Fold this protein.
Amino acid sequence: METKDRELLLHFYEDMLRIRFFEEKVRDVLLPQRLFRGSSHLYIGQEAIAVGVTHALRDDDYVISTHRGHGHALAKGVDPYAMFSEIMGRTTGCCQGYGGSMHLADASRRFVGEDPVIGSNSPIAAGLALAVKQRGSDQVVANYFGEGAVNAGAFHEAANLAALWQLPVLFLCENNLYAISVPVEQSSAIQDLENRACSYGLAGRRVNGQDVMAVYNAAREAVAATRQQSRPSYLVFDTYRFEGHHTADKETYRPAEEAVEEFRARDPVHLLEKAMIDDHTVDIPTTIAYRDRVREEIDAAFDRAREAPWPAPEQALRFVYTESEVR
Ligand SMILES: Cc1ncc(C[n+]2csc(CCOP(=O)(O)OP(=O)(O)O)c2C)c(N)n1
């Protein structure tokens, strides 16, 4: 293996571990200790998608995400400390604590934000891509959504306009098989979701979302086409969410053996680890050293965030109403 390939794989590995350990901290510490209110939509099992896609993007490209967006944000370089702070409502959060788990954003990383209204982030992505095009820039806009969003009218309006106006949007569907409790067979008339946008001339491509290299290669081709030809691309990733829809989900709708046996065997972090060990890219002590280092980084970010200041109560309504002189 060439050195640059080894470096790339190790970058993938580190970025996937960061997402995994971050999400495990939310699940195993923030949630049971009630360090935030409500629930959170975890990305565990889908890490290869955010990491493979982001490595195919440029730093100045935009990302717009969903309710399940911690992984997209971390892959785009949002600081784990600012994210833990945000989830726990502290002033050091990337939205000063006003956003929480489902409304994270960081303009400095061009992480436009999470958008939990299903389907509604695609028109925003198309609008952003229109602005990019009008500015004469060659940036692209990466738009993540789940397979549930493919049934939303807003997605189809955005896909049509993006194709009609040749806008540089990457439509990125993460098919994790369920929209809350509804299996994809019960929500989509056809199962080959890559064909759901072909009536707009958008030929989709189906990709193994558990294999980070497959994701990266497909995303690189799509990004190059979108950037160079200023036109949309559409990728559908086959994946699986290992946890419930959110952290309060009792998961009565799917068989335990599906989640535990069938899909755990396709854990994207383990698959990459095994592939790297099998072809002697790394040895086991190296993987352990990576795990220890990234875990320490996440632990330290969390410990700092936990000590971070709370907002003053009188700040609660800030940003709710426009400040104006008019009475
Ligand atoms: C417009 C709208 N309708 C319903 C909901 C409630 N809701 C939250 S998540 C979700 C399912 C989303 O499934 P999918 O798009 O496949 O993403 P996943 O959760 O699987 O990542 C629904 C219906 C919502 N947030 N927005």
